[in-house]
User: Which sequence fits this backbone?
């Protein structure tokens, strides 16, 4: 008789435990999805920045400018806010590069070195849009040491066009994944709280305050979000390690630390908010809608 009486209660607890486990697994999956969004955003921005900063201006120096003056001009350039880096190539260095490229010495043909000294200037990413780049070139062209400035116009145009397209696609994907993640967590929490709706309403009917009822649910959801976030972080890190180990390719992941922190905070925040509104929904509900 004793076992018979305890069996329904045991089955009820087992059902709640299964619901909690399913809920936690669902949140872990969603947080993995969230982690992918963060990595996508952080690395997308870095890739775009690196692509923009690959744009290079070729600054032709006037032939009568002394090498000391060129070095002074180079230092002046490096202090400008639009310059990422510079590389000075003297006439002789340019000649050696051409000799290596052509396989012959142009001096043997012309009896002199026709190559001018040049500065290769890499521009910071926020100055690589066409209108700002034109302003930079205009400024460079007015400098007394500069003879001319060249850059690959078609490359800049195509690069900016591709970056706009990729940025739009990444933004749309990130927004869609975020909406999916929020809906999944919200629905999962609501289903879990739904199984306790009668308990919530009973506590309210015996005089418990809303905060007294909410507090244990919020604490439980915060712990659930923290646990799910830690598991999701572990899966993300182990997956990256496995990919590097299996492919034997070393690659840098940008924003990984921020991603791991963001996943945990997102898990706590979203589960907390979803729990708050789910419990509040049952607190506001009519008795006839609860005890059915």
Assistant:
């Amino acid at each position: 008789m004793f076992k018979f009486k305890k069996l329904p209660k045991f089955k009820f607890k087992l059902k709640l435990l299964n619901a909690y486990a399913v809920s936690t697994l669902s949140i872990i999956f969603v947080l993995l999805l969230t982690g992918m969004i963060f990595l996508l955003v952080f690395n997308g921005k870095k890739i775009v920045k690196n692509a923009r900063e690959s744009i290079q201006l070729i600054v032709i120096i006037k032939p009568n400018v002394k090498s000391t003056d060129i070095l002074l001009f180079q230092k002046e350039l490096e202090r400008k806010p639009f310059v990422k880096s510079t590389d000075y190539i003297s006439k002789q260095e340019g000649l050696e590069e051409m000799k290596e490229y052509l396989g012959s010495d142009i001096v043997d043909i012309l009896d002199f070195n026709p190559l001018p000294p040049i500065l290769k200037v890499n521009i910071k990413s926020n100055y690589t849009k066409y209108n700002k780049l034109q302003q930079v070139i205009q400024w460079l062209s007015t400098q007394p040491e500069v003879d001319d400035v060249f850059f690959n116009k078609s490359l800049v145009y195509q690069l900016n066009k591709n970056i706009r397209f990729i940025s739009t696609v990444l933004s749309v994907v990130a927004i869609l994944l975020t909406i999916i993640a929020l809906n999944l967590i919200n629905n999962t929490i609501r289903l879990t709280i739904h199984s306790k709706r009668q308990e919530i309403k009973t506590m309210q009917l015996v005089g418990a305050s809303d905060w007294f009822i909410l507090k244990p649910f919020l604490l439980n959801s915060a712990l659930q979000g923290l646990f799910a976030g830690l598991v999701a972080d572990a899966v993300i890190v182990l997956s990256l390690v496995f990919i590097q180990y299996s492919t034997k390719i070393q690659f840098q992941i940008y924003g990984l630390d921020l991603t791991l922190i963001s996943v945990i905070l997102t898990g706590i925040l979203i589960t907390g908010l979803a729990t708050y509104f789910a419990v509040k929904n049952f607190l506001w509900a009519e008795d006839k809608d609860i005890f059915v």
